[in-house]
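Worked problem 6 (solution included).
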Amino acid sequence: MSGGISNAVLNAMDIGANSFALFLKSPRKWVSPDIKDEEAEKFQTLCKQYGYNPRTDILPHGSYFINLANPEPEKEEKAYGSFVDDLKRCEKLNIGLYNFHPGSSLDSDHKEALARLAKNINKAIKETSFVKIVIENMAGHGNLIGSNLEDIREVIDLIDDKSRVGVCLDTCHSFAAGYDITTAEKFHEFLDKFDQVIGSEYLSAIHLNDSKAPLGANRDLHQKLGYGFLGLEVFRVIANTERLKGIPIVLETPVENDDSIYGEEIKLLEWLQNKKETDNDFINKRDELSKKGAKERAEHLEKFETKQAKTTKRKKKA
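Solution. The predicted structure is:
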């Protein structure tokens, strides 16, 4: 969206994206200038011109500052103001989905934090008309909300208008939180668990990332597809999972300053369609990408094992 929010449409089109994410304002500031009417009109015109349905194909990402579960009233209110401002920007642009991180309980009671989060979502729904609030699952543990599916279920249970809430599953976050999704069987077991705990009707988006850190490391470290501990197989499975058609699947892989990498990964995902696990060209591509990420995987595995050893030592002393 740099240089004007309508540029997001052109940038998405340039890399061959069928869906895309964007920030609605600077993620580094609490307050940003309003979106001008002419810019909003240009955004919608370009969406129509290039075949993007803003109600279904676009998934804005909320500011990382927002913590609707903050136990300090002043900070909670400040976060809420930024949150509602984002939602109103969505509706000005005719965008139907809005993704955000559910935040942290900090040093407060976790159940009370879930209730605060739900209270603020309910309040925001009443202040807006149609945008669906999409809660993202998280990689961490402890005070972070949403590292397990049960947290998200509890929040949804407290939402009055459940048609206005959904969930975005992040592949890296899921894996880092301890959900093994590395094979077809394990990925579909995870989706089954999602359906049982939360409900299939709430799956509204996917964030597609490999993981630099190993299973259960609780580290939010995104990696290029096939380079990390997840490996290419899960992305082949996702590219061929019927139920995921029609929802935005958004790459958040590291690209430094070269957005063309997203275009390459989109082509990779399209290439993975109709591929089988036993296809020789798939096996060669899987091994090629895995080799490119081997050094980083080894480095992060060493860090993880060192941390685990220290934790075990502390527990023994205690």
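Discussion: The chain has one domain: 7-317.
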